[in-house]
Backbone:
């Protein structure tokens, strides 16, 4: 018996990294999981890797029509949503002097608008007692040169959780944040222009973590499962930092 038997979950940005690890972990605990991603082939591979408990829906969270289609697909399945992990996001280095309007707009539209409208459009599907989990970041409370726009989006996500937790408490819907530190994912490596630079970047980031290593996606997934389960039933508006102590020590 899994601790999420009979539950239905939606994980956005679930084709790699933290999203994929979380979708796997939720399914392993008994949940039926809907996965979204922008890349069709990666989405098919993610679904195949999880198995019969997974259903893929190609979608870009910054596209409202795509979000409508995601929610319609879940609704047509006859299920309510018990777990929503709004995880999809993008990041790109940009020093202050080089920030363009497009960089700002793309990052905010996906990381802030994508989460806002994912949760908004999921509201009619959320069951009583549902758990909404937002993917934040320890960068919201840590200075990081050339990542100011990304950091601002994650600060907005943290603020969303507080406001929505207060707003939805009467509906018995909990809203919490999981805040990763540097985590060994394709997205993090992809910030660098080539494999050599990626290795240097990961080494530098690990050196800034008190535990002297990067996180693993599976470690973030464990926190997501905890927030999705009844074991966190007295938590809302909270943030769990899974960052090797980087924001605490």
Residues:
């Amino acid at each position: 018996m899994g601790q999420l038997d009979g539950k239905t979950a939606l994980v956005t940005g679930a084709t790699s990294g933290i999203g994929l690890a979380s979708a796997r972990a939720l399914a392993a605990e008994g949940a039926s999981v809907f996965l979204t991603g922008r890349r069709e082939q990666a989405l098919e591979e993610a679904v195949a890797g999880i198995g019969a408990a997974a259903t893929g829906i190609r979608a870009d969270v910054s596209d409202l029509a795509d979000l409508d289609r995601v929610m319609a697909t879940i609704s047509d399945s006859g299920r309510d949503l018990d777990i929503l992990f709004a995880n999809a996001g993008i990041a790109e280095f940009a020093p202050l002097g080089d920030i363009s309007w497009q960089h700002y707009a793309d990052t905010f539209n996906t990381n802030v608008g994508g989460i806002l409208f994912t949760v908004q459009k999921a509201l009619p599907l959320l069951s009583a007692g549902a758990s909404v989990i937002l993917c934040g970041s320890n960068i919201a409370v840590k200075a990081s040169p050339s990542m100011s726009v990304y950091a601002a989006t994650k600060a907005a996500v943290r603020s969303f959780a507080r406001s929505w937790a207060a707003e939805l408490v009467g509906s018995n819907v909990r809203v919490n944040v999981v805040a990763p530190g540097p985590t060994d994912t394709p997205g993090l490596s992809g910030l660098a222009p080539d494999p050599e630079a990626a290795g240097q970047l990961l080494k530098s980031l690990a050196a800034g973590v008190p535990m002297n290593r990067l996180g693993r996606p599976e470690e973030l997934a464990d926190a997501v499962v905890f927030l999705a389960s009844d074991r966190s039933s007295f938590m809302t508006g909270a943030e769990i930092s899974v960052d090797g102590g980087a924001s605490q020590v």
User: Anything to note?
Assistant: The beta strands are 8-11, 32-37, 54-58, 81-86, 126-135, 174-180, 239-242. The chain has two domains: 8-180+217-241, 185-214. The chain is about 45% helix and 15% strand.
